[in-house]
């Protein structure tokens, strides 16, 4: 199957699956031989993509198995650019043969789709609450049918009006259903494809008959049919009205308000048209709609990107409550770079690696530990085997030499036997389950004559991030110092603005680590603007070291680079840095070295345009733009938003050992714990221990901004999290 979008197509194929049964469990998938390829969309007029086009495409999955169990929460884990979002989209749009057409799937995508459902100009259209209730209940569609039927029933001039309205509603429903029959026929192949195409032909006849009935003249309709369909019109109208009766809508509205409140919507924002909202609030609206509507499978692609820590913890609790308390909970598949969120919510991991899917029952910490232990075990086994092979080879040579010299056939037979064992039985000595290897059970197939070699898995971490050292200052002193700093924005139309920050004291020395926590709107962005000299304080003093070089990573850095890439399709990472530093002379070699140290080597730096780089690669480029100027202080504002789990880990390791000062504003608890507090979770254990590699940091401080004030948190991230847990309990009625 191929689906086209934005000049590209998603090609999907699978083997036959078990979903030919009459009543499948729609929360479950068991699809074998799954292949997904992205390639250029076919030219207009071509109905099929040629095999050549397939070979020129980008393969995301090759002969993979997609297995989802009902009610289980999964995390899809993979590096940036491996196709996680595309795979989830293929599932959500039911492009994969084997997904029943009747399966209800809701998806939250990272990027809002271009076709806004509201369709209105900015400032008009339904508000937030109306929008998500409509998505959950299809209220607008039901109301449309009610209006059609009601108008006909109230029409006293025509006895045939109710019959006409009923047939119109029925025909519109059949046309919508025809779309799914057509899609089902195009998705399937083989025996199932033939059955689906036969079903499509039968249904097309049914639609044609409905169209003929719709055009039937009054004089051709007998009285019995008129009476029967007039009664049917009244029955259908009553049924539709019951579906949107105030009591039922009130229950859904109450649940919607609970979800919206948990995601941070105030009463004022609820009444705003969706078209007026910023991108972040629109994404929260989409998330609320996904959580509200009844589904079999819910797909959440980076749901925490636009949430503060209160919203993240609330979402954790809501998803757990949904799984534990629901009578028929949906299957959840999510992608998130937030390690704590994944560990709290998910029961199993789906690892996307080397164009295939593997499954692991447990969280990310246990997966890291298990993977590392397995690699260590296999390495030891391989080393021991190499020594054993060398010994066998030596004895074989000695036996052959002695046998030929003395004519001893026993020695030659012994050498031949040892050679056979060396060739056929010196591979794996343990089965996949860890038990002893047995030929009749564990040999890969009847066509194999020997055991498989020991395959040591490669490290799954992406290219490491190496930060160049920050230069020393020529004379001592704090890098930045804020003394009794207050700030409020200028009054608008004579109305005084509230104070955003009040009497803030903060001092950052070379090598310090500072983490700033707080809910959205607490003043974190204002604090950053004061430190970076973007704005001036209303009161108080902000001092900076005269030789300070500051590197500021904005939370919008990736979007800015994406915009540059769209405006200039030939712009690469190397060209951008050369353009930024055109006055620095011959620096191409040094820039290549910097990009390579940050994980953008070779062709990724010089040949791949910005528009083709993943979010994680653009973060690395944004860091390169900062680090080229050798800053002593890095100010990082939500740097993990576009990163995958592996890259967050690599970045945390790099920042932890950097010698300069760092101020981090982030909702990622792992990053704050690792970089600012100097802690790391020991593999396989839950306790947090001091890292030995973080000796460069002088002072470690976690501060909380709340109500315009800033205070140090003695308990760090955990203290803030505990406070938010209590608030979430209240929000959820606990």
From TrEMBL:
<dbReference type="InterPro" id="IPR027417">
    <property type="entry name" value="P-loop_NTPase"/>
</dbReference>
<dbReference type="InterPro" id="IPR050611">
    <property type="entry name" value="ABCF"/>
</dbReference>
<keyword id="KW-0067">ATP-binding</keyword>
<protein>
    <submittedName>
        <fullName>P-loop containing nucleoside triphosphate hydrolase protein</fullName>
    </submittedName>
</protein>
<keyword id="KW-0677">Repeat</keyword>
<dbReference type="InterPro" id="IPR003439">
    <property type="entry name" value="ABC_transporter-like_ATP-bd"/>
</dbReference>
<dbReference type="InterPro" id="IPR032781">
    <property type="entry name" value="ABC_tran_Xtn"/>
</dbReference>
<dbReference type="Pfam" id="PF00005">
    <property type="entry name" value="ABC_tran"/>
</dbReference>
<feature type="domain" description="ABC transporter">
    <location>
        <begin position="31"/>
        <end position="379"/>
    </location>
</feature>
<keyword id="KW-0378">Hydrolase</keyword>
<dbReference type="InterPro" id="IPR017871">
    <property type="entry name" value="ABC_transporter-like_CS"/>
</dbReference>
<feature type="domain" description="ABC transporter">
    <location>
        <begin position="480"/>
        <end position="732"/>
    </location>
</feature>
<keyword id="KW-0547">Nucleotide-binding</keyword>
<dbReference type="Pfam" id="PF12848">
    <property type="entry name" value="ABC_tran_Xtn"/>
</dbReference>
<feature type="region of interest" description="Disordered">
    <location>
        <begin position="393"/>
        <end position="431"/>
    </location>
</feature>
<dbReference type="GO" id="GO:0016887">
    <property type="term" value="F:ATP hydrolysis activity"/>
</dbReference>
<dbReference type="InterPro" id="IPR003593">
    <property type="entry name" value="AAA+_ATPase"/>
</dbReference>
<dbReference type="GO" id="GO:0005524">
    <property type="term" value="F:ATP binding"/>
</dbReference>
């Amino acid at each position: 199957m191929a689906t086209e979008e934005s000049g590209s197509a998603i090609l999907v194929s699978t083997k036959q699956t078990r979903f030919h049964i009459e009543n499948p469990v729609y929360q479950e998938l068991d699809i074998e031989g799954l292949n997904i390829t992205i390639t250029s969309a076919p030219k207009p007029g071509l109905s099929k993509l040629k095999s050549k086009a397939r070979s020129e495409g980008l393969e995301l999955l090759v002969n993979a198995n997609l297995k989802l169990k009902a009610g289980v929460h999964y995390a899809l884990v993979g590096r940036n650019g491996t196709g996680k979002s595309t795979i989830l989209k293929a599932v959500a749009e039911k492009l994969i043969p084997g997904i029943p057409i009747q399966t209800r799937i809701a998806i939250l995508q990272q990027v809002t789709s271009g076709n806004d459902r509201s369709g209105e100009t900015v400032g008009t259209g339904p508000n937030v609450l109306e929008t998500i209730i409509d998505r959950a209940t299809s209220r607008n569609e039901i109301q449309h049918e009610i209006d059609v039927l009601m108008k006909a029933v109230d029409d006293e001039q025509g006895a045939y009006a109710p019959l006409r309205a009923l047939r119109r509603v029925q025909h519109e429903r059949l046309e919508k259903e025809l779309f799914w029959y057509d899609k089902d026929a195009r998705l399937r192949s083989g025996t199932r494809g033939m059955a689906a195409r036969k079903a499509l032909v039968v249904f097309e006849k049914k639609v044609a008959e409905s169209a003929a009935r719709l055009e039937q003249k009054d004089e051709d309709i007998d009285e019995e049919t008129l009476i029967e369909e007039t009664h049917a019109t009244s029955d259908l109208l009553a049924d539709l009205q019951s579906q949107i009766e105030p009591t039922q809508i009130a229950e859904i509205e109450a649940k919607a308000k609970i979800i919206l409140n948990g995601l941070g919507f105030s009463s004022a924002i609820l009444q705003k048209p969706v078209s007026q909202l910023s991108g972040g609030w629109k994404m929260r609206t989409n998330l609320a709609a996904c959580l509200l509507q009844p589904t079999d499978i819910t797909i959440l692609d980076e749901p925490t990107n636009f949430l503060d820590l209160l919203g993240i913890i609330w979402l954790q609790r809501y998803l757990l409550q949904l799984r534990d308390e629901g009578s028929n909970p949906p299957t959840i598949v999510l992608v998130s770079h937030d390690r704590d969120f994944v560990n709290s919510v998910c029961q199993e991991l789906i690892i996307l690696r080397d164009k295939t899917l593997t499954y692991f029952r447990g969280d990310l910490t246990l997966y890291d530990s298990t993977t590392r232990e397995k690699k260590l075990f296999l390495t030891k086994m391989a080393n021991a085997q190499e020594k054993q092979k060398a010994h066998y080879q030596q004895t074989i040579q000695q036996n052959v030499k002695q046998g030929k010299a003395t004519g001893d056939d026993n020695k030659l037979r012994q050498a031949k036997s040892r050679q056979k064992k060396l060739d056929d039985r010196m591979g794996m000595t343990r089965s996949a389950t860890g038990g002893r290897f047995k030929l009749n059970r564990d040999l890969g197939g009847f066509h194999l004559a020997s055991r498989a070699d020991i395959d040591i898995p490669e490290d799954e971490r992406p290219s490491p991030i190496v930060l160049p050292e920050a230069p020393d200052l020529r004379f001592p002193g704090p890098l930045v110092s804020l003394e009794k700093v207050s700030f409020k924005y200028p009054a608008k139309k004579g109305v005084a603005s509230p104070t955003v920050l009040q009497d803030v004291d903060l001092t950052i020395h070379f090598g310090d680590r500072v983490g700033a926590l707080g809910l959205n709107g607490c003043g974190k962005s204002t604090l950053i603007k004061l430190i970076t000299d973007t704005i001036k304080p209303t009161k108080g003093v902000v001092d900076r070291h005269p030789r300070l070089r500051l590197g500021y990573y904005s939370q919008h850095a990736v979007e800015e680079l994406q915009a540059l890439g769209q405006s200039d399709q030939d712009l690469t990472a190397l060209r951008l840095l050369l353009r930024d530093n055109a006055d620095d002379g011959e620096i191409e070699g040094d820039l290549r070295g910097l990009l390579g140290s940050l994980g953008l080597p070779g062709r990724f730096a010089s040949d791949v345009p910005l528009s083709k780089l993943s979010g994680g690669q653009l973060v690395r480029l944004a860091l390169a733009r900062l680090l080229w100027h050798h800053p002593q202080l890095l100010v990082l504002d939500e740097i993990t938003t576009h990163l995958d789990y592996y890259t967050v880990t690599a970045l945390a390791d790099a920042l932890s050992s950097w010698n300069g000062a760092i101020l981090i504003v982030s909702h990622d608890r792992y990053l704050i714990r690792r970089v600012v507090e100097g802690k790391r979770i020991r593999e396989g254990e839950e306790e947090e221990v001091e890292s030995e590699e973080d000796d460069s940091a002088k002072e470690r401080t976690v501060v909380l901004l709340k109500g315009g004030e800033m205070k140090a948190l003695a308990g760090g991230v955990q203290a803030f999290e505990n406070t938010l847990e209590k608030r979430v309990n209240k929000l959820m009625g606990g």
